[in-house]
Amino acid sequence: MSWKNQSGGPWGNGPRGPWGTGPQSPGPSSPDLEDLIRRGQEKLRTAIPGGFGTGKGIVVLVALAIVAWLLSGFYRVEPDEQGVVLRFGKFVGTTNPGLNYHLPYPIETVLTPQVTRVNRIDIGIRTGDDPRRGSVQRDVAEESLMLTGDENIVDVDFAVFWMVKPAAPGSTEDVGAANFLFNVQNPEGTIKAVAESAMREVVGRTNIQPILTGARQNIETAVQELMQRTLDGYRAGVLITQVQLQKVDPPSQVIDAFRDVQAARADAERLQNEAQAYANRVVPEARGDAARITQGAEGYKERAIIEARGQAARFLSVLGEYQKAPEVTRQRLYLETMERVFGGMDKVIIDPAAGGSSGVVPYLPLAPLTGSTPAQGAAK
């Protein structure tokens, strides 16, 4: 006898169940599953005359099953996802966001990985929640301690930002989402291992001083490029968007000594800059003085040569006049010399041929009367 012909279910205990009276929930009761099945069977009997056992009923059931199976091929891809279609487990193509269709299971299946979300992996540091202090960070020394090119130890914490690599245009092999799903079993673990290896390689060929000061951007770029080449070699379907250094310090055990060294190097660099500035100021001044002295000497040389040539020319001209009239020239030279010698001093003229016993010739000085200097009066 079927359950629908019994009054209280298979146990015959009425609506209370096999254990007697149970708790009754307040409000409207949920629909009975058996009642829903019974109503569905009755509607199917109405739609299929003769019941399910007839040939027509079987054909209708098979048709409904086929329609339902075909409709199961519709699927939706979200805006941040990409559909990866598999036919009997083999990759055959990708689909864009929106409503799409594939052959129903088990012929084709679809995977929808997120391809636009940027993911982050921290290396050398872990972030956790503390009930009292909130979010706290913990350093992981086995990941962050690295050896530099000059055999020093440095503590490097950094973050890697990555996403699923977009598919190459027109390519059916270099499909980022498919490579991401099938070529790497643990993508995050692989990316973390590759990032740590790349950072150790870049730090290992760089001295500690540039790492601690001005080479941070160069290190980030070099690590990003090396990671991308390595992951492309794995065909991991991963795009490294950014490598960001969080902290670059010496180990905590020797950080005080490193700070003293940094301060000493800063002082040395400051003193070198000051010395260079002094040299840049003094050297041009010295060169200017040397050029000025050289130019003065050149000018004196030219002047002396010109004066000597002028005196020589004057002497030659006087010599020519002397040879023409020796007595006149000699008298002229005597008078010019006397004028030059006595023109600037007080004079007393004594003429033995003058009348009187003293022989002093009266002299009227005109210079005080005219307001001119003795030299000017003598010149007149």
TrEMBL record:
Coiled-coil segments on the chain, per record: 254-281
Bias type Gly residues, positions: 9-20
The annotated region (Disordered) lies at: 1-34
Gene3D superfamilies assigned to the protein according to its UniProt record, in alphabetical order: Band 7 domain
User: By its UniProt entry, which SMART domains does this protein fall under?
Assistant: PHB
Main localisation, per the record? membrane
- In this chain the Band domain maps to 72-262
Do you know which InterPro entries this protein is assigned to?
Band7/mec-2_domain (IPR050710), Band_7 (IPR001107), Band_7/SPFH_dom_sf (IPR036013), HflK (IPR010201), Membrane_HflK_N (IPR020980)
Assigned keywords, A-Z? Coiled coil, Hydrolase, Membrane, Protease, Transmembrane, Transmembrane helix
Under Pfam families, the record lists: Band_7, HflK_N
**Subunit (UniProt):** HflC and HflK may interact to form a multimeric complex.
Please explain the role this protein plays, according to its UniProt record: HflC and HflK could encode or regulate a protease.
Family stated for the protein in its record: Belongs to the band 7/mec-2 family. HflK subfamily.
Q: This protein is called what?
A: Protein HflK
Specify the species: Ancylobacter polymorphus
Q: What is the lineage of its organism?
A: Bacteria, Pseudomonadati, Pseudomonadota, Alphaproteobacteria, Hyphomicrobiales
